[in-house]
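== Sequence, structure tokens ==
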Amino acid sequence: MDSGTRRRLALPALAGDRLIQERTMPHLAGWRACAEPCTAGGRLWLLLSMVAALACPAGVAEEWSRFRGPNGSGAGRAEIPGRWTDADYTWRTTLAGTGHSSPVLWGDRLYVTYADAAGEVRTLAALAAASGEVVWQRSVPLSAGPMHKLNSAASSTPACDAQGVYVCHGSPEAHLVIAYSHEGQLRWRRDLGSYTAGHGFGVSPIVHGELVLVSHEHQGASAVFALDAASGQVRWQHERPSEVVYATGCLFGGGGGLQLVLTSYERGITGLDLTDGSLAWQLDVFDKGHVETSIGSPITADGLVLGVCGWLGVRQEVVAVRPLAGGKVERVWTIDRGAPLCTTPLVQQGLVYLWSDDGIVCCAELASGAEVWRRRVGGTYYGSPVSLGDRLLCVSADGKAVVLAAGREFRLLGRTDLGEASHSTPAVAQGAVFFRTLSQVMRLDGAEAAPQR
């Protein structure tokens, strides 16, 4: 790798888990932290953030810029009821195709992907968040390739920042990463090479500061790429011996510096130095008694990193590790009873919620993994749960939105039929929930929804 590819980057930093989402300075994409001790500049930034927060409803995120929102945590806030009717939607828009990708938002734009019936035309659609009107669409022809019956040709969720939106389309023909402005103008296009997987494509990018981070882990030469967000040029490339991975990475700020967290059956849970892609830490934690794959995504909370791996009908497991200084990592706990395969864990106020694919929800202590409660809610789930403040929300494969109370006591608050099947994870922004079914997108406003522009 040449020196230009390996050069160290000036990136926003994280200090442990004291994260402040950048809602008020959209030109600084990603996350910052107020380190101890705070500098004068840090105190000024924090003050500006607090002042700006007074201009919008408390706790209401303006952006949901990647799969599962802020750092993949699934944490949002919207005061929606446990049940609702079709009349309660602010808008409902029918797309010109189908897909499994989840919606993302930046400012007044909502982005989602879909494909035609043959899976040979992949489309990124930009909708007006306030009205649901399709503002622009950009399509790319690409061969379909092999695909699992539960996958789609539009399963990759876009990512966005102040400069625009980034989308991945993949098949054995190519793995395309394409950047558009928020007005739909092509900024750049990069081909990472053939993507081979018997179950099809489903890789979602994330963006942080100057970098667009993309996993290219498949049945071939695998790597993780950091692309320049402005130009699409490769800033660094980390070769990674692994099979197919569908999990979307996240960022971790402990253990020295800022790392990109990845999971795979072959490598376990990994942290890559975000400045140059070098290995910061790694722990091989997943059961090697049988083949597994990573579909559900990793998350971070309270100094822990949670990784998901498994194989349908054999074994699923969620493992928590704690990265330490000097590249060391310690295993903290493992949950393998009723663990998910496709869905991603959710953490809130010291509790971790595991919403398994077969409709069993487990609440456990984040610190120890000790079970608090476990209940069957019914249904099959491929979309992941999100938090709405004091409530949890997840959508089943047959399109039933299930709302639970967050906390140490199980309470089912309601179940609403969205009217169509769904494999997607809702977006929570501007005090509203944005649902995506196979061919539709809808907005449900909460009690404290941000004013529609």
In short: The chain has one domain: 3-445. The longest helix spans residues 40-53. The first strand starts at residue 19 and ends at 21. The mean pLDDT is 84.
